[in-house]
Each structure stands twice: as structure tokens, then as C-alpha cells.
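Long-time lurker, finally posting.

We've been working with ABC transporter permease (Paenibacillus larvae) and I want a structural starting point before designing mutants. I don't trust myself to interpret raw outputs, so I'm hoping someone here can both generate the C-alpha cells and explain anything notable. Sequence follows.
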Amino acid sequence: MFISIAKKEIKLLIKEKGTFFWLLVLPILFIVLFGSMSSMKTQAVKIPYMDQDQTTASRQFIQSLEQMKGIQTVYTKPGANERHPAGKQRKQFPGRTGTGHKRRQIIGPARTP
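Top reply, 14 upvotes:
Generated this for you. Predicted structure of ABC transporter permease:
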């Protein structure tokens, strides 16, 4: 019974070219297309770190990260995140900010409405 149903369905697929295309050719085309878009090369994920603790545990943790495949650690100098702190007044751009104050411009995190 199963074989007779399968034979009937195959005959219908051969008769109807559109169904054959959508059922078999298009999925194969997508497999080839998406397979060619993604390369098999893997890039290491860069993880910036700043060891402020300076203990053996923190050094061991960083060394264990460096030994992991696919992870590249990047040392960040202390104070690098303080170059442009949020909320500091910038004197380079005085003028109206839209907040009503006409002499200060505050650079900070964006506010959501």
C-alpha cells in the first residue's frame, strides 16, 4: 500500500513541473546559496580586559581565556573608559542644547522617549 501511494505521488511530481521545482529544486538551491555565503573560516572573538585586581586568580582567569580556541584577549589600559565619561560638560560646543540652557552642552547616554 505504501509503495503504491509513493508511486502515485512520484508520477504527480513528474507531471507537475511547478511542484517538482518547489519541492526539490528550490531547497537544494537555498542550501547551495546559504552554504556559499558562510565561509568555513572562524574568526577569534576579541575580548578586551582590564586587570584592576592584579591577583593570581585574575591572572589565571585571563590565561585560561587566552588558551581557549576562538578567543583573543586584548589588554585595555586603565583609564581608557574615562576618556569620554557620560554626563561631562564639553566646552568645545557651547550653545543651545534643546534643554533650555543656552551655555552648556551635556554629552551623555541617549534617553528613550
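Before you design anything, note these points.
Helices lie at 2-15, 17-37, 56-67.
The CA atoms of residues 29 and 35 lie 10 Å apart.
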